Amino acid sequence: MTLGPLMVDIAGYELDSEDRELLRHPAVGGVILFSRNHDDTEQLSALIEEIHSLRDPHLLVAVDQEGGRVQRFQDGFTRLPPPACLGRIFDHERKRALHLAEVTGWLMAAELRAVGADISFAPVLDLDYGVSTVIGDRALHKHPDSVAALARAYQHGMHEAGMAATGKHFPGHGAVVADSHTELPVDERRFEDIEQWDLVPFERMIHAGLAAVMMAHVIYSSVDPNAAGFSPFWIREVLRRRLEFQGVVFSDDLSMAAAASAGDYEARAVAAREAGCDMVLVCNQRNAAAAVADTLLDAINPVTHTRLVRMHGHPGAGLRVLQSDPRWEQAVAAVQGYEEIPELDLEG
Predict the structure, then answer these.
(1) For residue range 149-178, what is the model confidence (pLDDT) as tens digits?
(2) Is 156 a residue of the active site?
(3) Which of 76, 97, 165, 211 could form a disulfide with 155 if both were Cys (CB 3.0 to 4.6 A apart)?
């Protein structure tokens, strides 16, 4: 069965009949999990196993497990520091920071693969301009060269653990004050400025084998009137043609307030797909997700399927086996040792 271009969410710890019906819809290709779907690691493993059993090839199971404020799974998983901690270390101890970035990427991905998850939407490639509260310490650094170096090390660790990396939020969310969850940010900079700064980490990571990109719900008003996730210029011209990216393009969540600029949910999904997104996300809106699934039936194609299948995680050991590995113990000690300021997790 072909993997469709829609990623949806579920409500609780287990699948109900409505969930199963939606997840078997031909237009659905993935599931994103949140904190509400995680009680303990045994329950989570069983949930993911059931999701995977519904389809062949199995649906992609994704989560946001960046660390710091954005770490959906907590109990039974190592608490990951905010990515900005790596940037602070990088300023003084470059070699140590790159090692810790690789270790963190490996640990995050290894623990997720141990419970069966395919994707963590990480690393964040946005630059920390010091103005965006929604990005903030989710960014690795303020300089593009530093972000690129740390992200490449982080990606290498993820690959070693059997997980593909997803860079976000293309072409860069860090220079706007507005939070795209609640309003539509507008970045008025020229294309040349964005190209010389924000695009650098994406370009370097693409050359290093980046498997996927998530788009930003931001309008770059001097460049294109459409938000980037609905923009053929940003996706087809810049990302695909100029940067020669061949991997998966994910939309950000179409339920976010910034996405409303493209119309109702069906219109948003169609606009994102026509702009070049391989997979669109509709979260926390079950009726809208079902309507989008029907709308996207004609959008199923083998090119998208082939790209999405490459995002399946490679086989990993179970959590108990992983936690008996000295490498895991060393990684946990290293990661727990470099956070400077405790952060609280946020659901959203």
Answers:
(1) 999 999 999 999 999 999 999 999 999 998
(2) no
(3) 165
